[in-house]
Amino acid sequence: MPRDPEALRHWRPEPATRRETEAMVGLERGDFEIYRNKMELVCWEAYQTFSRMGISPMIEAGDAAVGIYTRQGDLAVGIMGTQLHLINASIGIKWMMRWFYEEPSVGIHEGDMFYANDPLYGGIHAPDQILFLPVFWEGELVAWAAAASHETETGASEPGGNPPSAKTRYDEGMLLSPIKIAENYELKADLMEMMENRVRDPRMQTLDTKARAAAVHILERRVHEIIDRKGVDFLIGAMRRMIDEGIAAARAKLSTMNDGTYRTSVFLENAGEGKYGLISCQVEVEKRGDEAFIRFRGSPRVIGGNFNMFPHMMIAMFACYLFQFFFWELPATTGYYEPFHFEFQDGSFFMADPEDATSLGVATHAQVLTGVHVAMEKMKFGSPFHDHVVGSWPGTSNSMATAGIGKDGMPFAAWDQGVPNGIGMGARWDSDGIDVGGFIWCAIGEFLDSEAIEHSFPLLPVFRSVFWKDAVGYGKYRGGRSMNSMYQVHGVPGVAAVSMGGISGRPLAPGLFGGYPSRPCATAFIRNHNLDELVAEHRTPSDVHEAVERVTGDWEVRHQNSGMGMLAEGDMYIGVAPSGPGYGDVLERDPELVMKDLREQAISHRTAREIFHVVYREDNLVVDAEATELARKEERERRLARALPYDQWLSGWLDRRPPDRVMEMYGEWPYGMSTPLTDWEPSAELLDEHVREGGAPRSKPSRY
Amino acid sequence: MTTVRITEYLDIDLDNERWTCHVCGKDLASARDNYKTGLVVHERDPKEIYPPIYPTGEFRLTTADGYGLFVEFYCPGCGTMVENELLPEGYPPTYDIELDLDALKAKYMEDHS
After folding, report:
1. Is there a domain that residue A571 lies in?
2. From B55, which residue of chain A is nearest by alpha-carbon distance?
3. A278 contacts in B (CB within 8 Å)?
4. Is residue A496 part of a domain?
5. Which residue in B8, B60, B63 is closest to A513 by CB distance?
6. Looking at CB atoms within 10 Å, which of A326, A588, A683, B51 has the fewest?
7. Into how many domains does chain A fold?
8. Domain for residue A703, yes or no?
9. What's the domain range around A239?
10. Tell me: the pLDDT tens digits for A225-271?
11. What does the pLDDT look like over B22-52, one tens digit per residue?
């Protein structure tokens, strides 16, 4: 079976077919807009059904995506949620059209459903699983529907789906090239059994697969209703026009931006469990006219690490910036991608070997995306869209998977998605970042109730639905606040706990225009502690600061990507979500907003005085405006007194180096590596004309 | 004079091809060069801004030792912090905004003609 690297290059919309072009001619203005809106609403309907039926915490929290695709596999319309899946599902459809459409032993028929998650076939990583349904009308394949979300268990070497210790793809559990899991709308028991048999939580695998199936059935039913009312040519023409309008909108918006090159230096700080140290990535966005070239340099592939990935993973992740922040005003379509080009260095962690583990490539692409985001927002500031400038998400999330036998005697492997979804957004050009905004992959994910966590897992949140003080990126506008949490294992003898994917050595996303980045994250296991005494004394800690002050016992502070440990009943762990980076100079923050921060316990008095330089009375939070103005003037004078002219400072700075202990994975100093850039454009047509233009499958022998 | 705002704190004077401070108007650097060359610079230990929270361990909810220093860029005229970067020691500051000045001049001077 061919893995077909060419298919992985077909993230861009395919050229319109003759059928699509002709069908567009008949579209009437008004009708098209109404039905574009209808199709977006149809996607929302399917999404809501999906998130209500699924039981994995990520699906329950709404971290999911559904989309409607053309026959060729291009996204016509999709919705918020995990937007990257809207793009990588497209690659999966294109692969199936190329290899299954005329494969007699498989074929693509009405009532079929397909399932896949392998990155080598367009997937992201093993947990991100997609169900596809081809939509037929009177025997002709006219569209596709897809539903995707993340499973918190894949049968990998560690529970949780993102094994931090994975060294090759064979440590990552169930990786599926596209398989036909249903015929005549009926799931096949043999393949469902296979999937259940390969994971630690078979109930979740099956129920979530059915939730995906329900979502695509809604899409199919609604698409059929549209065809029934308007005709099949209307559907085909409307889908293509959605893409073409996306292309036109993308080019029009880009053309308003100032030509030039915008760069961000991003530094990762781990490549898997125990592999801690710096890795650089120089992100470059060169914008010319109505096109943009996005380049990634300087990030050597880490052999035996699992932060490697494939170019299509980074390109799909770009959707999470593009659809959330650059084209927020129109429904998501693959058309927006058309004027963008991507280039990667040979030998970089973007160019993994097919044998590599890539399970935490999602952490890499999220962190690198913050660099793209910052570069693009700097470009946006100088454009007519400057009043939509928003700082980046802080980067990857931090998850603590727990696994074992639950209170109900059933196996489980999952995590509290409230922590990843409890991330603060970056500050905006005119206001603070949104508190608990979601997470970088999904801006609409929910922060699940604590009761849901207690019900689903053998965990008691000691504190959870509380903001993390002094964690935001400071600035004229501060980043959005995030959650911090502490849990106690209860009701079971113990659980396996897997810290995965996070950042602990340094914050990742830069602030904008002098705003600071936020704090990095780290977890802690606490054993043999005094929580019972604290509860009896009514001194139960309510955030991580109080936990550090009050909880005595055996603390084990861990990197956020430190892999699996065991916690016994009564043991506790702390999880924190990253806050948003800041915007602008801290000395420009309105002193009354600083007092509001104090009232809301977003910051401490130390921060108010020593970072924001506000003079006020601590007992009533009344600002002394005159004294504050003087304090800030003095701080500006101190800045100028201690700073050096650029050239003078640079001559000493460039002679210095980070310590060797953080440089093992870094590569060449200072830019990591110097291999050539390779573009990631299609190099050949994927489908021949007969298949592209709607031809029926021709008689061919099976490849086997 | 044709001045175009480029960032929160930076303008470009197109007539003279210079970066200038949006807050105080200070002339900073050639607009064909990195604006940072016209700023003054100070390094800070990230723990000054974000003191550690966990009392022990390498990873204490602040930038760990060896993983970078804040490099703060101030306007030499008014002391406004125009930009900061958390850079590994010795890493060259990023040339983050390299505009096509000729295209910019053509765009804005045409608009204002």
Report:
1. yes
2. A548
3. 67, 88
4. yes
5. B8
6. A683
7. 2
8. no
9. 17-253
10. 999 999 999 999 999 999 999 999 999 999 999 999 999 999 999 99
11. 999 999 999 999 999 999 999 999 999 999 9
